[in-house]
Design a protein that fits this description.
heterodimer, A: 266 residues, alpha+beta, outer membrane lipoprotein receptor (LolB), chain A, 13-stranded antiparallel β-sheet, 43% strand, B: 437 residues, mainly beta, Porin, 18-stranded antiparallel beta barrel, 3 helices, 6% helix, globular
Chain lengths: 266, 437
Amino acid sequence: MFKPSLMLSALLFASGGAQASELQDVNKIVQQANLAAYYAADDGRAEARMLIEDRDGGRQSRQFTILRRDRAEGGDQDFLVAFSRPADVRNTVFMVAKHVAADDDRWLYLPGLDLVKRISAGDKRTSFMGSHYFYEDVSGRNLNDDEHKLLSSEGRFYQVLNTPKDPATVEFSRYQVWIDKANMLPVKIEYQDETGSVYRRVEVLDISEVQGIPTVTRSRVSDLRSGGSTTMEFRFQKYNIGLDDAVFSERSLRKLPRQWLKRPAS
Amino acid sequence: MNRSLPTLLWGLLSLMAPLPATADDSPVTDDGWEQGDDSWDDAGWDQTDSDTGPVLHGFSELALGGRTSDDPALADESLTLGEFRNRFELESAVNDMRLSIKADLYVDAVEHGGHGRLREAKLDLSPAESTDLRLGRQVLTWGTGDLLFLNDLFPKDWVSFFAGRDDEYLKAPSDSLKLSHFTDRVNFDLVWTPEFEADRSISGQRFSYFNSQSGLQTAQSPRIVGQDKGEWAVRIFGTEGSTEWALYGYYGFWKQANAMTVSGSAFHSPLQVYGASLRDNLFGGLGNIEIAWYETADGQGTDPAIPNDQFRWLSGYEREIRPRLTLGIQYYLEWTQQYDVLKSGDAGNPFRVDEYRHLISLRLTQRLLQDSLQLSWFSFWSPSDRDWLLRPVADYRFNDQFALTAGANIFGGKERHTFFGQFEDASNLYLRLRYSF
């Protein structure tokens, strides 16, 4: 009596769970992946460093602290990126007010000139501080900019093909994303040119749980044409630190908000 | 000052070293993680801030530049830039206070000898939660123009700019007090400079200029009566949605000595400036408008030795026209007021400014090789003065330490007395190699 009912409930639970995690609607899949990748908790801080390598073995590095605050889950967000290395970009600050329904607002603070330089909204797919990452990789690409198509939900990943609505604004003709069903994080992205060959790849190398939230701690972007790559590592991440609006302002560009940038005690 | 700067710097260094560095000191630790460091995986992230004191950074730079043609007024000087420059930067924090020092030591083949310049020595405080105070020698910038300044009356160093030093040197520091207050929607900046800081204008030492009194090109330094009174600058600003707005005020003196005493010396006559600016996203790019009213000591226009009032206008637009290729254009107007009065009072001065001075700027920036190579073109062209300045620059960053810059400043014009036209013989090519640490 007892055992079969337990088995039954276990079966029901398992199948129910499976149904909940097996998504059919591609828009729901990309939405959840977007939330997992860019909207974890309400805000957060992390220290990051990038190792930029070219084909000939030349290496450069960047080190920065990043602050993020969500204005709405899946909606507008603010980012502040404060560089500490190398010497020639030290104290340079990059700030984005990301808008889902309008162009992003972006600023770069150049400390040598005390200049708050606004960056035009268009050029998002340009190198993020000399790395193989693009500005858009850091703050996330607007879901409405692409058509999404579910290629496969076999096995561990959802495979989604994304085609730009306005091909003139981007350098790719489409890109395919592998989303891990276990945590809904996009773990591999391959960008294709007009001939369908892959020329750029973004891969997640390590994921850790931070305050119970699966969080990317290591990733790499490879430029398959030039043979160069950039590896990015995150450490000292902390979520829900209570960032307020005022942190994302011209004041922070000219005078770093050090109480928020400093490494958390734990 | 010049010779004692190294001593001063090292004195400060040793003074600051024993201070307990707080956790606020730096957002990331100085963990020896450098370019080419093989320990990238295991890292030194774990080092705590308390292990690090004030950190010394800076650069060494070798720079060389020369005229593209001889300047008869400076017949013996073909070099326009020749220096070995060392920059030392130091930051230290104690509780909420933060001290930042930047000093340059350099030997100069044009202005012969060794020089020391304290570029920055500022103390940052926050006396209240929404109030910041910045005291000391500092570089200050505001306004929306690209190399055009309407409401930014902080000192510029045109000699450095023309000679091809790093862009940073276009802005000269001033010894000022900057008080800022921030609220949800409106912010306030107030800058007091107790002793007026003039622009570093072309004065004949490195580049010759046109003397409108003699009507000749000259390398003689002009006789300038100094101004030691103070100056004030205010800005009220905010962001509504994506729109940045600002109102500006300035109470001081012309940054150029463009007024004349009866004895024929140049001086900085009183000036008040009121202005406003807007900047926002526009058609996938960026648009800006800035206006300024220059109220001078000769509002009636009757004194030809003192500049008349002016209305200044700037509009600009910038956008990426192809991947990694950005185009920026600006239109700028200087409209001299009471022009008829000026005309009737200056005895037919052939070098009188135009009533409307129009200026168009064009900037093209191409980023290549993962941003390691940046090619940029900047030009000013004035259809009213019929003169121009062309500034092509190539920047190449070899790695995190070494960078090479090659560029040119090409001046020209139909007449010898106009703003850019007078610097035709100042046209130069330059090269800079920098090691950053």
